Amino acid sequence: QVQLVESGGGLVRPGGSLRLSCEVSGSDSRNAMDWFRQAPGKQREWVGIITRGGNTNYADSVKGRFTISRDVVENTLYLQMNSLKPEDTAVYYCSTLGWWGLGTRVTVSS
């Protein structure tokens, strides 16, 4: 069974940064892994992906501000978020092979 545990969310001011983590167990973090987010009252939105080969791709709304990486030794996925905006406020989820974590909440507010 795959277990994904997100952490690192919190309250940050506009323009600030956060790094989210997704600890992976029961699977290999070298598999393709996605980040999604769901803002209050909105549908879940795809944020980005890191492929098995290490290539990344991002939604236009976060391109140039967010970076996905992974540590295969720690079996952990990361989402570095810079230049945060109020519209980035959401619960952030990692996902792989159809499995999802419970999410971590990010609030961007002054």
Task: Give an overview in words.
It is a single chain. The protein is an all-beta fold. 0% of the residues lie in helices and 52% in strands. It contains no helices and eleven strands. The protein has strands at 3-7, 10-12, 18-25, 33-38, 45-50, 56-58, 66-71, 76-81, 90-96, 99-100, 104-108. Strands 2, 4, 5, 6, 9, 10 and 11 form a seven-stranded mixed β-sheet that branches. A four-stranded antiparallel β-sheet has the order 1-3-8-7, with no helix packed on it. A hairpin with a 4-residue loop joins strand 7 and strand 8 (76-81). It is globular. It starts with a strand and ends with a strand. The model has no long low-confidence stretch (mean pLDDT 96).
Q: Secondary-structure map with pairings?
A:
Blueprint: E1 3-7, E2 10-12, E3 18-25, E4 33-38, E5 45-50, E6 56-58, E7 66-71, E8 76-81, E9 90-96, E10 99-100, E11 104-108
Parallel strand pairs: 2-11
Antiparallel strand pairs: 1-3, 3-8, 4-5, 4-9, 5-6, 7-8, 9-10, 9-11
Indicate the mean pLDDT. 96
Amino- and carboxy-terminal Cα gap: 40 Å
Q: Helical proportion?
A: under 10%
- The number of distinct β-strands equals 11
pLDDT < 50 runs, ≥5 residues: none
Give the biggest beta sheet: 7 strands, mixed
Total helices: the number is 0
Report the C-alpha radius of gyration, rounded: 13 Å
Percent of sequence in beta strands? over 45%
Helix- and strand-based class? Answer: mainly beta
Multimer state: single chain
Task: Please state the overall shape, judged from the principal axes of the Cα atoms.
Answer: globular
Q: Encode the helix/strand succession as letters.
A: EEEEEEEEEEE
